[in-house]
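Weekly sync, protein design subgroup
Attendees: M.S., D.O., the rotation student, P.L. (late)

Item 1: inverse folding check
M.S. brought a backbone from last month's batch and wanted to see whether the design step gives back something sensible before we order anything. D.O. pointed out we never logged the input encoding, so this time it goes straight into the notes. C-alpha cells as presented (119 positions):
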C-alpha cells in the first residue's frame, strides 16, 4: 500500500503553463531547476510538494516546452565530456532568459546565430 511519502516522491510531476498546457515530466528533470526543486522538496511547505503539480503563471506553453527540452537536455548531458549545443531560435531568447531567471539556477547555455549565450 502506498503511503503519502511515496505519493510525494512520484517519479513524474506536472508543469502547467500560463495558457493551461499541461506537461508531465520526470521529477529528475524538473529538479534541474532550483525553483522547481524547492517547490517539490518533501520538506517544503509548498502545496506543490504534495500535489506534484506546479503552475507557472509567467511562462506560456510554447516557452515551457522549450524549457522542458532544456531540462531533459541538461539531465542527459550533465556528465558528458562533449556536449552538443542547445540551439534556441533568436525570437525565443528574451522569454527564455526571463524563464531561466525565474527558474533559478538553470545553467542555460545555447547558441543563436553563431553566438553563444549563457546564464
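Designed sequence read out in the meeting:
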Amino acid at each position: 500500500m502506498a503511503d503519502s511519502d511515496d505519493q510525494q516522491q512520484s517519479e513524474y510531476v506536472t508543469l502547467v503553463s500560463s495558457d493551461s498546457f499541461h506537461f508531465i515530466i520526470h521529477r529528475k528533470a524538473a529538479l534541474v531547476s532550483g525553483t522547481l526543486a524547492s517547490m517539490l522538496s518533501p520538506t517544503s511547505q509548498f502545496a506543490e510538494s504534495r500535489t506534484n503539480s506546479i503552475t507557472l503563471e509567467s511562462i506560456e506553453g510554447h516557452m515551457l516546452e522549450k524549457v522542458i527540452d532544456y531540462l531533459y537536455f541538461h539531465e542527459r548531458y550533465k556528465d558528458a565530456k562533449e556536449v552538443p549545443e542547445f540551439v534556441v531560435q533568436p525570437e525565443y531568447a528574451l522569454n527564455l532568459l526571463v524563464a531561466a531567471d525565474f527558474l533559478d539556477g538553470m545553467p542555460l547555455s545555447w547558441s543563436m546565430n553563431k553566438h553563444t549565450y549563457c546564464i
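Discussion: The two ends are 44 Å apart (CA to CA). Residues 66 and 91 are 12 Å apart (CA to CA).
Action: P.L. to compare against the previous round before Friday.
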